[in-house]
Amino acid sequence: MLIKDTNKEFPKDFLWGSASAAYQVEGAWDEDGKGRSVWDEFVRIPGKTFKATTGDKAVDHYHRFEEDVALMKEMGLKTYRFSIAWTRIFPNGKGEVNEEGIAFYDRLINELINNDITPMITVFHWDLPQALQDEYNGWESRKIVDDFVNYASMLFSRFGDRVKHWIILNEQNVFTSHGWLMGMHPPGKVQDMKMFYQVNHHAFMAHAKSVLALKALWPDALVGSSFAFGPAYAKSEKPEDAMAKMDYDDLQSYYWMDVYAYGRYPRAALAQLKSMNVAPHFEAGDEEILKLAAQNIDFMGVNYYQTTVAEYNPVDGVGMSNKVNTTGKKGTSEVQGMPGLYKNPKNEFLKTTDWDWTIDPEGLRFACRDITSRYDLPIVISENGLGAFDHLENGKVHDPYRIEYLKAHLIELKKAIDEGCRVLAYCTWSFTDLLSWLNGYQKRYGFVFVDREEDEESGTLNRIPKDSFYWYQYTIKTNGAELEE
């Protein structure tokens, strides 16, 4: 569409933000009563992370949050999305509350509010308590649902008086596929497809019951979950490629978003899973709970980084692989797929990052249009950013490639808004540099450079704003009005 809009600014109440996750920034992994998470254990398995990096210290946000919030204030951030570490609240996943953990997040929330920054909380960003993994295999057991809702309800009751923006689950599709199909995240299982879908059903139930628990306490709160959305383009005009895209959409995108928004699985996807004998088991009342929760969703959270290509994949074609690029050496990823349905070859028309992620600003607009058309829900862009090799030179970090990346995505996001998409917030990933899970600390995303090396002991951890920091500061100040100038 060619919408002519003379208003170059974003909506007046638009939340310009940035984001992080507890395990990736906090550090203080065993301080003040915190229990161990599955990630605290997983990173200690040889070969699991780049150069055996851990989040033990991360970028020490736990001790430096006031300094970080001061930088957010200087930048002009309107919102900061962060996650809470389950094991700081319940060291054993349930039972006695750790008041020191509550106190830390109270201080962080109050510091944000005192600096006119809206706190946006993610309830779960992958750091499951190890105690629950040990007791009943965590997400594999239906028991996780009640323990999760108990944890989430504690957050709602303690922080809901000040926090009105809640994201229940972060990238459910990623932590489940990496954990039960690719073996790259805890618990490190490979091709356990039946459990993968059952785990997802447990996560959907935890999400749904938490949504209802939040609305019972705080009806005016805004809630959703964040989905890692990588829209697909059909490889060619061949009908089999168009059908491959449809299969990909149902099994890799709508499978999650339909449950959040409609409270039901896509029919074609469920038929496929039943034919493979891997469909999830429902308990009595699950369908009703999922549908009721969907009626209480306020937005669709979207973590957007890249698009993909869908091409027909023969029955003897490629499957899922755990050979992904975690080193930053271009061209080391392998094509993934589902035999008999689709595969995802490289898009020859798009550039990629050093980690082989396609760079596709227009895909963000595509994602927003798709969500608006299919669900008619407001959207929170809860992550969007560029991981790159940044270098400190003479006390400064010049990152024009990040500015170019974010600027291009924001221009497309504004077009989506002009076309009728209701976008409430845009949170970059990330505010400071952080631990990039499997990729270590060399893959940097932040506006703020953190002086630390792969080695746990080296680096001052000093904060140094990059050029992109000042660009985003000006973009916020002008409400995006000069992006295309």
Automatic annotation (TrEMBL):
Question: What Gene Ontology molecular-function terms does this entry list?
Answer: beta-glucosidase activity
The UniProt entry annotates the active site at 383 (nucleophile)
Sorted alphabetically, the keyword list is: Glycosidase, Hydrolase
Q: Name one GO cellular component term.
A: cytosol
**Pfam families linked:** Glyco_hydro_1
User: What InterPro entries does the database record attribute to this sequence?
Assistant: GH, GH_1_N_CS, Glyco_hydro_1, Glyco_hydro_1_AS
Biological process according to GO: carbohydrate catabolic process
Give the UniProt family note.
Belongs to the glycosyl hydrolase 1 family.
Protein name (Swiss-Prot/TrEMBL): Aryl-phospho-beta-D-glucosidase
Q: Which organism is it from?
A: Dubosiella newyorkensis
